[in-house]
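Hello forum,

I keep getting stuck at the same step: I have a sequence, I want structure tokens, and every attempt I make locally crashes halfway through. Rather than fight my setup again tonight, could one of you with a working pipeline run this one for me? It's a single chain of 278 residues.
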Amino acid sequence: MLLHAEWTPYIKRRAAELGFMACGISRAEFLEEEAPRLENWLKRGMNGKMGYMENHFDKRLDPRLLVDGAKSVISLLLNYYPPAEDQQPDDTLKISKYAYGRDYHFVIKDKLKTLLADIQANIGEVGGRCFVDSAPVLDKAWAKKSGLGWVGKNSNLITPGAGSFYFIAELIVDVELEYDGAIRDYCGTCTKCLDACPTQAITEPYVVDGSKCISYFTIELKDQLIPQNMAGQFGNWVFGCDICQDVCPWNRFSKPTQEPQFAPHPDLPRLTSSDWQD
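Reply #2:
Ran it on my machine without issues. Output:
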């Protein structure tokens, strides 16, 4: 078994071996700064018809209510940025880059389970739980707290030297580890994401009105008619939207994913209306 001083380095090294691009760790505690932010966002109705966002308010802010005896939140990033030759041209029906390959929930959950099993095998009796968009966890807040990036004006986590095209996942465990610290915000005076959003969903820096976002209409409300005031503003987007990430200067540092399961379907680059309807 590893000595306590070896636990954190081992976890980060093993995470990298499993393909995660970054791993940061923070103390499991109440997210004091996020509470008023989340409450105000919900009060303004920015969750639209996503009523589930109003559920489990306390659990969203305190991981100790999700995992008994939780001591540490391990945040992990998995790159999904596709190679240039696999990206869809502007004149075709477009889906968000995160959906090009296999369902990320399955890909990441498998990696998290392996990581947890390896931790238990090398550290000892460790209780923990894996999270990939499947429970009320504020993943961007935890990744920020763990030093993996800052939350940009488009509300996405941005990592220096890597951009924002990655998934965020958590492993919450009941052992004390070494904790990372948050980094500063590097958005500066840039407003490219605000200026580019065709539906003005980014109502002010760092605030996204989910009920105006193209992703909201094409994913959450995909079976409903587009409101008249939004007609003609979606461009070619039929599932999700990457506009606010595509224009972000930090994404010039994005590197192609090395995860083979995220390789796109060969017919994706030339997706037609009939293909999508089928």
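The first strand starts at residue 22 and ends at 27. If your local run keeps crashing, start a new thread with the error log.
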